[in-house]
Amino acid sequence: MRKFEKLTSAVVPLNIENIDTDQIIPARFLKATTREGFGENLFRDWRYNGDQTLKADFVMNNPDYSGRILVAGKNFGCGSSREHAAWAIQDAGFDVVISSFFADIFKGNALNNGLLPIQVTDAFLAEIFSTVEKDHAAQLEVDLENQTVTIVATGAQEGFEINAYKKSCLINGYDDIDFILNQKHLIEEFEQTK
Amino acid sequence: MSKTLVEKIWDAHVVKSEAGFPDILYIDTHLIHEVTSPQAFDGLRKRGLPVFRPQQTVATADHNVPTLNQLQPIKEELSRFQVDMLTKNCAEFGIELYGLGHPFQGIVHVIGPELGITLPGKTMVCGDSHTSTHGAFGAIAFGIGTSQVEQVFATQCLLQQKPKTMKIEVNGELGTGVSAKDIILYIIAKISAAGGTGYFIEYAGSTIEALSMEARMTICNMSIEMGARGGLIAPDQITYDYIKGREFAPAGEEWDKSLAYWKTLYSDADAKFDSVLTFDAADISPMITYGTNPGMGMGIAAHIPATGDQAVSEQASFQKALDYMGIEEDTELVGKAIDYVFIGSCTNSRIEDLREVAEFVKGRQKAENVIAWIVPGSKQVEQQAIAEGLDKIFEAAGFQLREPGCSACLGMNEDKIPAGKYCVSTSNRNFEGRQGPDSRTFLASPLTAAAAAITGKVTDVRTLLNEPVHA
């Protein structure tokens, strides 16, 4: 897994609540058997018309917005367990997703792939959206070590929670399998007791 | 110390618990299918690892499979490739596969219970969010991502934070035309599509206790639609009776030993839940969703809520959903013309669902403008339906009984609802485009779906239940 470092970037704002995994990557694009290439179908039905032309009013098709941080409304990633959703977001060039609430499975999948989900308060989320609405190139600074997000222009800052173990995985580029494999003897002992 | 049911099962499966780290949780049974497993098998190859406990892993092909002519090669190239890949991977890693043509093939959450693989007290996972279904037996069962599928392949364990617990009690008798699906759609409408996030839910109360196993599965299945990864029900005599004699269920001495353990699986009287909610069955009517998440549901006779009545921050998303669905705030849904009816999915494709639909449509005829699909949850359900003559009843009523799979629940195969069309569906998600690009889904019970097929419109089934039928 890729190591996560401090990030300063402009953002792509998606001010919609309850964005489910079928919007992030529709089921009909889950047929690949590798992890790569899902980015081109990220938010497929919001990005493209039925005839494959771009939908002009969708934020990802607006050249004013770019960056490695996706900012979305609350309950982001609800629905299916498809890890393809995290892969698609990452493959499209994002390292961080910010929302005021995440669905459980999505959050776990993101962390398992080095995509950092940051939960902020509703008020801070609203502040990010309004800042970006005024200045489309406004930047955020994400500091994983100190667990803070800062709106660079105003200096407004909020801390975020992350499980200490998961944080060290992200910073060091470990994954869960490395961790458990080191304790396989415990698993075999446990099986003997069943 | 008194414990909840979740805590009892969880604690019995903790391999290691260390402050500052998630628990290492042992997984008894791992179910896999063709869509979320290939990258996990690839990961094993890259690490040079075998599947640690292949005998505790069961595979089937369900998400991609056609529901007509299943024994012919799959026409759609990518689907065929994915299903073939599962076959190759299972052969290479020594995993039992109930693939197309096998008498045990079917939707993963239908076959586990019907084969006696799903048992009380187990921990079960699958790369599918509706794994919560198996909780109906008093098991800890939840959906996982593909990295975790790989983790379970490699270690038979998961690193997992112990969830918070919620108890949802439903008490009293259900009204006419109201079923398990209506109960769960009602609960989700009450607590929202995110109201259960972070929790495992235990369903209890007299209404739940009176339900059959299949109805309990419908309830637990949709736990994830309020954000809860798992939902479960304490096992009782109804559970034991369902399990006994099934293909892989314990038998003989093993049965007695299992039963003695299962009887310890309940939440202690003074166990503490992090949250407790109570509902009255008398308040539940046949339900239908009007929006684009399962929390946007209402009693079928109600008016669609007004956008202005939503919290200010939610109004834009709410109105976006109504616009997508092509419906107006503060109007009735009853009478709205529909195009498709889909009876199937891991929520409602079991034999009791098919029997209920058959009983209702017998002697009736579907509306001309409606295409009505019935997709059984498994080969065994399909064969049982045929043995009982339900296929003849469906045919006479103009419904098409197809072959088992996930089908139009998520439209990965050819079974898609066309753009702009309305489908009354017994599945679990009404997300934008879920059943096909720009399709519009109304979630409902099998009975409500069947009623819509007959009239060609969204219909309060209670108005038809007393009508004479020309058999």
TrEMBL record, chain A:
Catalysed reactions, semicolon-separated: (2R,3S)-3-isopropylmalate = (2S)-2-isopropylmalate
Keywords associated with the record: Amino-acid biosynthesis, Branched-chain amino acid biosynthesis, Leucine biosynthesis, Lyase
GO function term, MF aspect, one: 3-isopropylmalate dehydratase activity
Keyword Lyase: yes
Assembly notes: Heterodimer of LeuC and LeuD.
Pathway(s) this gene product operates in, as recorded in its UniProt entry: Amino-acid biosynthesis; L-leucine biosynthesis; L-leucine from 3-methyl-2-oxobutanoate: step 2/4
EC code(s) of this entry: 4.2.1.33
Function: Catalyzes the isomerization between 2-isopropylmalate and 3-isopropylmalate, via the formation of 2-isopropylmaleate.
Start and end residues of each Aconitase A/isopropylmalate dehydratase small subunit swivel domain: 1-121
EC category name: lyase
Pfam families per UniProt: Aconitase_C
Name of the featured protein: 3-isopropylmalate dehydratase small subunit
Origin: domain of life: Bacteria
PANTHER family hit by this protein: 3-ISOPROPYLMALATE DEHYDRATASE SMALL SUBUNIT, 3-ISOPROPYLMALATE DEHYDRATASE SMALL SUBUNIT 2-RELATED-RELATED
Alphabetical list of InterPro entries matching this protein: 3-IsopropMal_deHydase_ssu (IPR004431), Aconitase/3IPM_dehydase_swvl (IPR015928), AconitaseA/IPMdHydase_ssu_swvl (IPR000573), IPMI_Swivel (IPR033940), LeuD (IPR050075)
CDD domains: IPMI_Swivel (cd01577)
Similarity field: Belongs to the LeuD family. LeuD type 1 subfamily.
From TrEMBL, chain B:
Matches recorded under PANTHER family: 3-ISOPROPYLMALATE DEHYDRATASE, HOMOACONITASE, MITOCHONDRIAL-RELATED
Catalytic activity annotation: (2R,3S)-3-isopropylmalate = (2S)-2-isopropylmalate
Record keyword Amino-acid biosynthesis present: yes
UniProt domain Aconitase/3-isopropylmalate dehydratase large subunit alpha/beta/alpha: residue ranges: 7-456
Lineage of source species: Bacteria, Pseudomonadati, Bacteroidota, Sphingobacteriia, Sphingobacteriales
Name of encoding gene: leuC
Classification via Pfam families: Aconitase (PF00330)
Name of the protein in its database record: 3-isopropylmalate dehydratase large subunit
Main EC class the enzyme belongs to: lyase
Obligatory cofactor(s): [4Fe-4S] cluster
InterPro entries on file: 3-IsopropMal_deHydase_lsu (IPR004430), Acnase/IPM_dHydase_lsu_aba_1/3 (IPR015931), Acoase/IPM_deHydtase_lsu_aba (IPR001030), Aconitase_4Fe-4S_BS (IPR018136), Aconitase_4Fe-4S_dom (IPR036008), IPM_dehydratase_rel_enz (IPR050067), IPMI_cat (IPR033941)
EC number(s) recorded for this UniProt protein: 4.2.1.33
Cofactor note (record): Binds 1 [4Fe-4S] cluster per subunit.
